[in-house]
Amino acid sequence: MTVYPVTENFAAEIGDVDLSKPLSDADRTEIETAFNHYSVLVFPDQHLSTDQHLDFARNFGPLETTIHAARSDAKLRVRAEIADVSNLSQDDQIWGKESRKRMFEMGNRMWHTDSSFRRLPAKASLLYGRSIPPVGGQTEFADMRAAYDALPADMKLRLRALVAEHAIMYSRKKLGFTDFSDEENQTLPPVPQALVRKHAGSGRIGLYLASHAGRIFGMTEEEGKALLQQLIDHATQRQFIYTHRWRLHDLVMWDNRCTMHRGKGYDDLRWPRDMQRATVSDVAPTCEQEGLAAPAAA
Ligand code: OGA
Ligand code: MN
Known about the structure:
Elements (H helix, E strand, L loop, with lengths): L1 E4 L5 E5 L9 H13 L2 E4 L6 H9 L23 E3 L15 H6 L16 E10 L7 E5 H6 L3 H7 L3 E4 L1 H7 L7 H6 L3 E4 L1 E3 L6 E3 L5 E4 L4 H15 L5 E4 L6 E5 L3 E5 L10 E8 L4 H5 L8
Parallel strand pairs: 2-3
Antiparallel strand pairs: 1-2, 3-13, 4-15, 5-13, 5-15, 6-12, 6-14, 7-8, 7-11, 9-10
Bound molecules: N-oxalylglycine and manganese (II) ion.
The site of N-oxalylglycine has 10 residues, from strand 5, strand 14 and strand 15.
């Protein structure tokens, strides 16, 4: 296995390893070490069945089930352990312009980190490109540890005590999407998340932000939203970004604890883009990890 840095501290390509086979202990350790230093690992030219994709992801912790399983009437195109990030409907055809899935997935165009709307958010995401469009559809990643490092000292101090409230309804509402069932509203309530986190694998500190964040505890809605927007603007400046331009059969693994990402547009009514994501859960709620009291829902 070979680790080729793409940037000094944020992205690396991992070559000479076949992820369809069980990992040796040495390879797993090397991947974990690279993952803790960089935040985005690109494994090119992988040929994986769904089982192999999920088995590889399980090396890093327990898997999430898709948010769409929160609807008992959901008809999934793929297994419940896979987040279907494609533009395909259940019958593998390109989605309709007005389809609910298309409107919902538009949320991925906004900067976010996966599953920050869950009490136990995601640690790692492993997105696999089964088919990709010829133009567009890149994924951008923002380095939240570098963004934190670049803040003024008084700001760092102030932010470390803060807790934000995240919900899937908050990010979707920003785009005008409100089509949630009572069942979804009940199973996906807003949750508290630390605004700043110490990254378990490296000890470095990072901002923890997402489009899912809707308010900050102890602040008025306006003040909290303004601060969140200011921080997202700061963290997504050019110098903190790596853009991944997909090749067929790339598997990209990123660290949701210290990054944000967003998908770029493409002609999604013309080209199939079959991206499937396995998602590894974090070990504990973020307030618990930071030793912050988690406020009750606002
Ligand atoms: C994701 C996601 C963006 C993209 O898989 O979690 O946000 O480019 N993907 O598909
Ligand atoms: Mn995502």
